[in-house]
Amino acid sequence: MPMPYPVFVPRWVQRLLPAYQWRGPTDTAPTLYLTFDDGPIPEVTPWVLDQLAAYGAKATFFCVGANVQRHPALYARLLAEGHQTGNHTQHHLDGWRYSTAAYMADVARAAEGVASPLFRPPYGRLRWGQARALRRAGFQIVLWEALAGDFDPQLRAEDCWQRLKGRLRDGSIVVLHDSHKAWPRLEGILPQLLKHYQGLGYQFKALPLSPLAQVP
Q1: Alpha helices in the chain (DSSP H)
Q2: Is 37 annotated in the active site?
Q3: Which domain holds residue 197?
């Protein structure tokens, strides 16, 4: 069973940890930033891309380096269709279980295939020293405001959708997963999310590349 997790990160937590990016920039029209973790994989990612294309939506894909190596043509399609990518480590490492040196070596290996300053830690777990090392290396650490829970086998797709419906706001970064584990729920969430929020006048954009300033 997954560890307990908040669906929405409280604003006071976001203010307490300003070195992490929790939200995207707001625009002239209300904007949502959909992000997809753990791909690319041929069984799920092409379907996600087709759904996004149907709504003229752009998104950000935090890619596992090993998957990029296995599926380079699919990674190339992400870029060709105007989506943003980010580093999600080479082997989907839990930062709490690794030293800073080992973690950064894995990040560097993923960076050989994912040329992006955006970084999201798997499980959202980082040690302080790892976060500092990432910032020194020029990475912008992107977390999220809303977590759909599509990775959670205890939930149905409709449960995940109801968590988000009517609660997202201009600038929200939303986490979804283009993975085998999430597929039974993602298949039901994504079409509803795109249709509902586009109907409310929202646009869907990729996160801009604006790395945080390096720390001394």
Answers
A1: 11-16, 45-54, 65-70, 72-80, 100-111, 128-136, 157-164, 183-199
A2: yes
A3: 13-204
